[in-house]
Amino acid sequence: MLNMDYGMKTAKQGKNVLTAEPFELSYSTAFDTFKVYKKGAGTASVTFETPTVVTVDHGLGYRPAFLVFSEIGAGGGGVAGKYFLLPFSYPIGGDFSIMPHVTSTQLSIRYGGDMNPDTVVYNFRYFIFYQRAHPI
Q: In the chain, what are the domain boundaries?
């Protein structure tokens, strides 16, 4: 049973948030939903055919859910300033993929090198979620 006497609620269109039943809500902090633990942005400088790994510490002690978005190179259909949900593999194959990975202490993003002979800087954004423990 949900305790609806605290927190924040949003009712579905046409419903009164003060009298709505749980199934008539579109959001409630009482629902078991992802909570953002940490979010941020960064850059990765990637050189020709040389993998680059960027890490973000979280220290949660378990492998949390996460989302990572990154710019991708023009060879993969990307455009600067447009972000794609990772993982991403270039359509031509090879080791030019962008792969996120999480451990109990860090989120890492591996850029598998670039086809451009110059150093390319990719912007990325991330969200690390946590699940609060519920009393039994």
A: 1-33, 35-130
Topology, domain 35-130: Jelly Rolls (2.60.120)
Please report, in tens digits, the pLDDT of each residue of the chain (136 residues total): 455 456 788 999 999 999 999 889 988 888 777 889 999 999 999 887 788 999 999 999 999 999 999 998 765 566 778 899 999 987 766 677 899 999 999 999 999 876 777 888 899 999 999 876 544 3
The amino acid that residue 50 corresponds to is T
Instruction: Please tell me the distance from the alpha carbon of residue 109 to that of residue 98, in angstroms, as a whole number.
Output: 7
Using DSSP's 3-state secondary structure scheme, residue 74 falls into helix
Q: Give the number of C-alpha atoms closer than 13 A to the C-alpha of residue 67, restricted to the C-beta side.
A: 12
DSSP one-letter code for 79: -
Residue environment code for 45-69, b if the CB has 16+ CB neighbours within 10 A, otherwise e: ebeeeeebebebebebeeebebebb
Tokens of 102: 């999480």
**In whole angstroms, what is the distance from residue 23 CA to residue 66 CA?**
27
Please check whether residue 72 is in contact with residue 59, taking contact to mean a CB–CB distance below 8 angstroms: no
